[in-house]
Amino acid sequence: MKRIFTALALFLLASCKKDDVAIIAQPQANILVAQPAISLAATAAPTNAVNVKDQGAKGDGVTDDTKAITNALLYAKSTGKANIYFPDGTYMIGQPGNGGGIIKLVDGVGMTGNGPATCHIKLTSGRYNPNSIFYQDYVGMPSIGNLTIQGIDFNGNLPLQKFDADYQFCHALSINNGKNIEVKNCKFQSFRGDGLLFGDCFEPTLNKRIVTNVNVHDSEFFNIYREGTMFCCVNGASFYNNNVHGDGYLVGGVDIERHSVNESVLNVSVYNNTFNFADGYGPAERGGPKVRYRRAVTMGFFYNGYKNGIADSLSGHHKIYNNKIYQGQIDCWGIINVSISGNCFTNVYENITGVNFLTTAAINIADPANTKGLIKVSADNNVIKSAIGNGIVFHGYTQAQANANTITGTRSDGINLIATSGYFYGNTVTDAGTATQKASGFIVSGDSSGLIITTNQATNTLSGTARTMDYVVKIAGINNGKVAPKIQNNKGKNMAAGIISLYWLQSTFAQLLNNLAG
Questions:
Q1: pTM higher than 0.85, yes or no?
Q2: By the 8 A CB rule, do 347 and 387 touch?
Q3: What is the dihedral of CA 55, 59, 62, 68, to 10 degrees?
Q4: Are 499 and 517 in contact (CB under 8 A)?
Q5: pLDDT tens-digit map of 104-113
Q6: 332 touches 340 (CB < 8 A)
Q7: Which residue ranges does the record assign to the Rhamnogalacturonase A/B/Epimerase-like pectate lyase domain (predicted)?
Q8: Tell me, what DSSP letter sits at residue 474?
Q9: C-alpha distances in angstroms, 163 versus 37, 93, 169, 190?
Q10: How far apart are CA 277 and CA 289, in angstroms?
């Protein structure tokens, strides 16, 4: 294992653009880890704010400042102030709160500190199934918004708490209904739940509680048990320039999740982030061996799924782009109208057999429930260096596309298309498979009417029996689609077996043109 992650350190140094990350030592793992160059500069005290120390807060790391912070929020609201201000210090949250949380957020009142290096809000230790720190009381304050939270380190003190095995509801901030919310230049660490939770789920009527216009940026997420940030029942959100790393992430670094038909989960963008799971491990609840490999971004519709099993227009239009991902993947489960582009993956081999909540592909676009109408998901211009599984998988989608991806060193086929149709152009796959279990640039199975695979390149860099790739394109099963696939203008260099392999029972069911060696 030590050799593997020494190799990972070297691999990280060589991947993507080095000038986009600062390499720092992590002595606890004895490896080098890439971190984004996020600014944690001090935030000036706002003029339109209530100082929490004027309301009795001490910030001495000992005194329970719960009541003083609550009073500051209420006083700011009553006096028309837009913020409460935390001078440098450590503000302890000692009260237990209720199932919703401990401190109620207030509409129109934000929170400001001088930066997460010097301003800390921390749960006291010794709690059993602790509640969230800040939350929206949607009975007393049904909507909150027009607020900014910045310059604060939120700490759930996870190692010193006690939990039931299935408990995962201690969040830093939980907001169920509102609009115009910005979180920036903060740190979220050690929570047995989410760093940030936006939206609500399982409502009896459509969008009874929804959050719109959310921006989370230039912040750090460290050792978060469930999700760094969760977006459920939201319309319009951005997550960018953040650093997500450490232990945990049972579900993912960012989770864009629809739970029921009475939610809209639309227009979420995740971009320019670093998801570095090389410096931590997934939680034991995954089962199987302990691994670093986890979901960086996951999008899904779970539980009962779409009404009558037909995709509707209330989930999708998400954009996941320009992220750097180490020991991680992007999942898209049953969501439509999604763009996944310009992401850079660096994954060294880990055996994740038997580990829950994970698939092996760096980009996995699939349907867990045989949903009809899954369309328009694209994976373009991604750079995938992954020794764990496929580079990209599509399963059960039409009007799909994967263009101009660079895929290197996958242990199985570069791009795996299962019951999928669409347009797949200009991809480069190098050294997929292993010497003992060879793989192809593309492998195709299931019904795929009108599938087009064109102008792709597959290359073995090794020779003789050491070659790992057999074909550029391999049709591996019966295709009952009405229109035969078009496979044309593809090239293979140094393939072990050939350029195109058709399924033996349908040896003429393909339109082949100008597929060449060289």
A1: yes
A2: yes
A3: 20
A4: yes
A5: 999 999 999 9
A6: yes
A7: 50-195
A8: E
A9: 34, 18, 10, 13
A10: 16
